[in-house]
Amino acid sequence: MRTKVDDGDDARRSKQEERAARALKEADVLLLVTGAGFSADSGLAVYNDIGKVEAYQLRNLDYADICQPRWLKKDPELFYGFWGQCFNDYRNTKPHDGYQILRNWRDDKNLMQHQNDHGTTTVADEIRTRTLHKYHLRRPFDDDAARLLTPYKVDHEDINQIAGSFFAFTSNVDAHHYDVFEAHEIHDCHGNIELWQCSNRGCETGIWRAPIDHKFVVDKEWMLAPKHVDANANDGDDGNDGNDVDIDSKEVKEEKDGSITDKGDSDNDNDGPAKVGHIKATGEKRSNLLQYMPPGLDQKGWKDMGPLGNWPRCGHCESLARPAILMFGDFGFHYDLPQHERWDAWKEAVMDLTKSKSEKEGIQLKVCILEIGCGINVSTCRDLSETTVHHVARRGGEPTLIRINPDHPGAPKEFVAADHIISIPSRGLEAIRRIDEIYKTLNQES
């Protein structure tokens, strides 16, 4: 039997979710900010889950220990065991249906009509026009470094490839946003697993996309990835370096041809933690892959390893390749400069428009920051959300921060804009579904 306290908590949460739905419906601009908790709803492992992997416990390694570039040189089997299995898990797992709900909200924002001195327009069009103007003033995509450090092409002269009233800022490296949102409206601040780079800091190459058909072979018991698969030996060793595994094994064949269907330790694993290499039973198999990420520009970057290769190499200098993901203690991460410039220009355009509407039209632009699953271990996303609230308010806009987090839904004591935050103590997907039901009702009433 539930207690009265539980009923009271539910009532308060429901009230906050109704406030959130109204804020989303009325918003002129929607900034989506997502962290690891949003990935967890797809059945994927997050920071704390890494420490529960027995192979890492035996080595006394937690997430901060294992997520470091030094392992590539010190123990490449361990390095590719971790990142290779993450790569497989992220590709095997379908983004949960909360992404589609968010896409629908994005579409609503981009189509919202407004009246101004020149007639009817959309805030989305005004933001795009201002963003394009900033592109022309700064020309941030013309230098060699920018052209090199981008994995795919976005046409910055095409108004349809400039973000409107929506942008997604995420610290997640699973690249699942690219199944739902357009590349020009995504900023993955820590990179993502689909993008790779050379580990040799002297190699003047940029970022490349991993082949769509690649799959790492990983020994899930020890979380190690062999250097290559030996097709000729049955003893797991070709006599060269010992880093081989027999291709005749059933598990290896399944890994290479993608026929593994394991989604969890059991069908009743819904409430247990996800583990690298074992998707929770709630996770679904992926039906498509990165449908909105444009084709890669550097076709030579990822060296063709053939069917037996397992450690990727740079096609330019033959050095080992690594994910273009910001790790702990990482001084060699290649940042996608054009993506960063797109985000900066969009953010500045929103702030300029907010100030202009306040000063010239006496209108408060309503900017909703929807933050989901952003924890305190790595506070990049939470800091961004809170800073955006301050920037919008200072320019005369009306900001609302919807913070969805089961453990840390509130703001720090020093957060002076407490009136602008809606705190929802919940898992992301659960809250989004409930908010969407209210949101649909509000749409029907209007």
Order of helices and strands: HEHHHHHHHEEHHEEEEEEHEHEHEEH
Give the distance, in angstroms, between the N- and C-terminal Cα atoms. Answer: 39 Å
- Helical region count? 14
What is the alpha-carbon Rg in Å? 23 Å
CATH architecture of the largest domain: 3-Layer(aba) Sandwich
List unreliable stretches of 5+ residues.
Answer: 1-5, 233-242, 245-273
Number of separate domains: 2
Report the helical percentage.
25-40%
Give the strand order, joined by hyphens, for the main sheet: 5-4-1-11-12-13
Q: What is the CATH T-level topology of the largest domain?
A: Rossmann fold
What structural category arises from helix and sheet content? Answer: alpha/beta
Binding site for Zn(2+): 198, 203, 314, 317
Keywords: Metal-binding, NAD, Zinc
Domain Deacetylase sirtuin-type: 10-441
Organism: Cylindrotheca closterium
What does the model show?
The N terminus is likely disordered. 37% of the residues lie in helices and 14% in strands. It has 446 residues and is of the alpha/beta class. The longest helix is centred in the last third of the chain and has 25 residues. It is built from 14 helices and 13 strands. Helix 1 crosses helix 14 and helix 9 packs across helix 12. It has 2 domains: 252 residues, TPP-binding domain (Rossmann fold), CATH 3.40.50; 173 residues, no CATH class. GO terms for molecular function: metal ion binding.
